[in-house]
Amino acid sequence: MVTVLIRCSHHIASLASYPKRAADRGLICLLTCSDPSNRSVAPFGGIAPLYTPNPLAAGFPTEGEPVIMDISTSCTANGVTSRLHGENRRLAHPWLLDSQGNLSDDPAVLFSDHPGSILPLGGADLGYKGYALGILVEALTSALSGFGRADNCNRWGSSVFMQIIDPEGFGSKQSFIRESEWLARACRSNPVKPGASPVRLPGNRALYLRAEQLKKGVRLYPTTMPSIKPWAEKYSITIPCVQSA
To answer: What are the start-end ranges of the H helices in 87-172?
Structure first.
């Protein structure tokens, strides 16, 4: 087992990109991060932003495709609310609180003079579960690395926790795969309502899209290339050929 902590890291991007590398080698990966300089999520029962969406990612092998997960411990992520705010759009559900503690689906409440907050995963009803996961991430990242919110950090930089586990050092890799494959098959074969799609494992859709995009190219969100273009021009980088969908 190997555990690595990084403080004041640069952006580590999509956490889901990393666990597959470990799972493809028969290893288990746990990965999470927080940003001590940023506050957007309120603790359950509170209304003031205190910590970040604190994503939690993991991956482990089966006989076939690995199981890959990457979830925020809040109802939505900062990137999503920022993008929708810029497009003057609303969230699908009231996952936010305004500064007075009222439920809202308008990202603008996060960008006002008196900013609101994002609810923990589980929302107004079950958010105590996401809240518990969120502060666990704070403990594993900032607290364990020795640098975090208590240091009044005012410069952006992630605190990162990563752990790699080799099943061979425990019950054996063979036993792990036997159990993980049994569970994977049991999940996929679980009965569904008439006409409903079969049960998927975490990461199945992402792995399918990855395979498709490696063949056909990546479909970007409409605002992505316009936001990249000024930087490409600044640093004299040629933008790849873009095809309309």
So the answer is: 123-138, 144-145
φ, ψ at 224 (rounded to 5°): -70, -55
3-state SS of 160-225 is EEEEEECHHHCCCHHHHHHHHHHHHHHHHCCCCCCCCCCCCCCCHHHHHHHHHHHHHCCCCCCCHH
Contact yes or no for 92/76 (Cβ under 8 A): no
Question: What amino acid occupies position 117?
Answer: S
pTM of the predicted model, to two decimals?
Answer: 0.90
The class that CATH gives domain 2-190+198-220 is alpha beta
The structural domains of the chain, with segments of one domain joined by +, span 2-190+198-220
CB 137 within 8 A of CB 34: yes
3 three-class SS: strand
Q: Which residues pair with 30 in a beta bridge?
A: 58, 163
Residue ranges for the chain with pLDDT beneath 70: 242-245
Q: Kindly write down the DSSP assignment for every residue of 222-237, as one continuous string.
A: TTHHHHHHHHHHHTT-
pLDDT in tens, 166-199: 999 999 999 999 999 999 999 999 999 999 999 9
